[in-house]
Write a structure and sequence with these properties.
Layout lengths: L1 E3 L2 E7 L3 E2 L2 E2 L7 E2 H17 L2 E10 L14 H18 L9 E8 L8 E10 L16 H12 L11 E2 L5 E5 L3 H11 L19 E3 L3
Antiparallel strand pairs: 1-2, 2-5, 3-4, 6-8, 6-9, 6-10, 7-8, 7-11
Helix pairs in contact: 2-3
Length: about 220
C-alpha cells in the first residue's frame, strides 16, 4: 500500500483500473480515497435516478480578482452548490420530475507546481428525466448551463451575467447514464477520475482546507 507522502491518510492508486472501471493515466498517481468517493457518489445517483445526467465543467475566478481576493477555502464552492440547489429546486417546483443534486469536485492550483490561480473541476449528477441536456451557451432561453453559470456568479457575489466564461464547459461534457449500463458508467468514471489525481492538490492547503469533496446524500 502506497501512502501519499503529503497526507498519510491518503492511499495512492497507480493502476489502470479501479473496482473494474478504467482510470485515467498520464497524470501520476490517483488518490484512492477520492476514487472511493467518486464510485460512491455515482452509485448513489443511479440508485435514486435510474436515468442520470452527468456533466463535467470547470469553475474559474475572474482574471481581475487579485491574489488577496481568491478563496483557497471551501466556502466559495459550498456557496456554489447551495445556490445551484436553490435554483434547481425553484425551477422544478411543481414539475413532474424532480432531482437530487449530487456532485464531485476538486480544487487545483496550477499544474505540476503551486503557482497560479485556484480553480475547480466539477462532475454534476442530476435526474435525466428532469434535465436531459446542458443547453446552448448562447440560447435566449433558460437552460442548465445558464443555471450553473448563475450559481457560480452568485457564489462569487457577482451579477449573474458576469458569470459568462467563468463556468467553463470542456469538450464532450455530457454523459447519459442508465442503471446497469457498465460501459457508460466506465466512461464517466474514467473521465471523472481526473479529479482524483494527486498532482496539483499538495500546495500547502491540504490539511487546512480540503481539495476534494462530494455530496453526502
Amino acid at each position: 500500500m502506497i501512502r501519499n507522502p503529503n497526507n498519510h491518510n491518503h492511499k495512492l492508486h497507480t493502476g489502470e483500473t479501479y473496482q473494474q472501471y478504467p482510470t485515467i493515466i498520464g497524470y501520476g498517481a490517483l488518490i484512492e480515497n477520492y476514487l472511493d468517493a467518486l464510485h460512491f457518489t455515482l452509485q448513489r445517483a443511479l440508485a435514486e435516478h435510474p436515468r442520470t445526467l452527468a456533466v463535467r465543467f470547470d469553475l474559474r475566478y475572474p482574471q481581475w480578482m487579485t491574489a488577496g481576493q481568491l478563496d483557497f477555502s471551501n466556502e466559495v464552492i459550498k456557496g456554489f452548490f447551495k445556490s445551484l440547489k436553490a435554483i434547481i429546486k425553484h425551477d422544478r417546483a411543481g414539475a413532474a420530475h424532480r432531482t437530487s443534486v449530487r456532485y464531485v469536485w476538486a480544487r487545483e492550483v496550477g499544474f505540476d507546481s503551486c503557482d497560479g490561480r485556484p480553480h475547480f473541476h466539477v462532475l454534476l449528477l442530476l435526474n435525466r428525466d428532469a434535465y436531459r441536456i446542458l443547453g446552448s451557451f448562447d440560447s435566449q432561453e433558460e437552460n442548465l448551463y445558464k443555471r450553473i453559470r448563475a450559481a457560480w456568479a452568485r457564489a462569487l457575489d457577482l451579477p449573474d451575467e458576469l458569470g459568462a466564461g467563468l463556468a467553463y464547459i470542456p469538450e464532450n461534457p455530457v454523459y447519459k447514464l442508465d442503471r446497469g449500463d457498465h460501459q457508460a458508467y466506465g466512461e464517466v468514471f474514467y473521465r471523472a477520475s481526473y479529479l482524483c489525481k494527486q498532482v496539483t492538490k499538495d500546495c500547502g492547503f491540504e490539511g487546512r482546507y480540503h481539495s476534494f469533496g462530494h455530496s453526502r446524500i
